[in-house]
What does this fold into?
Amino acid sequence: MAYTPPFPTPLDRSQKRSLWKLFKRGRRSWLATLYEGSYSGRLSRVRLPGVQLFLVKIPELIKEVLVDRSESFPKHELSDAVLKPLLGSSIFTTNGPTWERQRRMLDPAFGQAKLKEVFTLMQGGSDALLNRMDQLEDGEAADIELEMTHVTADIILRTILSESLESEGAQKIFSAFNLFQEKAALMIQMRFFRIPLWLAPYHYIVWKRSGREIRELLAQSIRVRYEAYQSGGETDHRDILQSLLEARDPEDGTAFTLVELVDQVAMLFLAGHETSASALSWSLFLISKCPEIQERLHQETCSVLGGREPEFKDVSRHRQIRNVFRETMRLYPPVGFLTFRKSINGQRLQDREIPDGSPVVVSPWLVHRHRELWERPDEFDPDRFDGGLDQPSCAYIPFGQGPRICIGAAFAMQEAMLILASLTRRYRFTSAPGPDPEPTSRLTIRSLDGISLCVWKRPEDLQAAESYEPQPDQEEEFTGDSAKCPFH
It folds into this structure.
């Protein structure tokens, strides 16, 4: 019998909600403001104080906004205003020629050659996770969301800066980021409802201070490496920061300045650990509810790896793990509402005029559960991805689409395959006593009160099987080109 995981009950359209009630519900979770009708239809208009917001929900219109007419729907300045204390002028918030230059210089750092090069650094973080999990008593409940946040932050620090989360500075970054994310979500909501930020002075101060603290901590590590590189010093680092130090714009030959490096590294830390932590946490929760699927993953991992350590070549061989991860991101896309775009120069969508400056929102959460696009949209069924997904290209968009598709999509795939393979080979996960986790959306889709799972160590003789070489039709091309990433 198929499993239907928890999701917020949509509001009844017949029960009108005042803006104040919607604001309070949205303060808890943006998902709590959605109506049943939000999960169908083509284009919705949402009236907020002083602004009309347009919600695009079908692949044809999403393709127009993100791909075909992306220049007519640039990033909304709201993204810049809310994330600037942390991200500065990074690729996440910029538009036009500035964004184009940044993308040209960042792309090589996430090509297949670089992903292969940082695999060992990534594996160090995965091994540290296994060491922590081994300290648990058999069957002990663990906060899996906390563990996944830890390991993904550790991996992003190792792969970018060659530092582990165990260092004092890394721990400070980790703590400050948790504060920043919580407060940034409130700042976005207040801006949309035209509520002056001074009405929440404590939250405003913490938001600004935590963003500044993260940047200062990152800058300390980056500055040392930047000055050494500028002075011509030798380096044995082969991490992503080294690639950024060496990057040159192919059009004018310019390099990143120190401030630009801090901007980009802060962006990579934000996008690189928080989204992966969300998807991995929900993946483990879902397989804990579906023992048969979990056993399939265990058997596949034992067959692929045998008794040896994972290698880069194994990433493309975990077909069932890949399907579980894809289906998880369909049901719980890490970013439920992609950063806001805006209409410029009198755009039209469908037959509706979109006034200049109006926010246009694409929601993976809604399109992935659209009642007219998916069979059994709320059920967990990894097998729906077997043999490729028979859907329009913009029906499945966990990392966006078009020119601004997430630069780290292939990085996330590699990380997920490594972590899930390592965990399912070594442990079995079951639900902990208590209610199921409640999905909530702020910057990412998380559980309101964490995800607690019981962890059982598998006998060592069940952690390996005779290794095999997959047949060609069992493998899937793995590329560092985000536009050709296996997610899409």
The domain at 19-484 is CATH 1.10.630.10 (Cytochrome p450). The first strand starts at residue 43 and ends at 48. The radius of gyration is 22 Å.
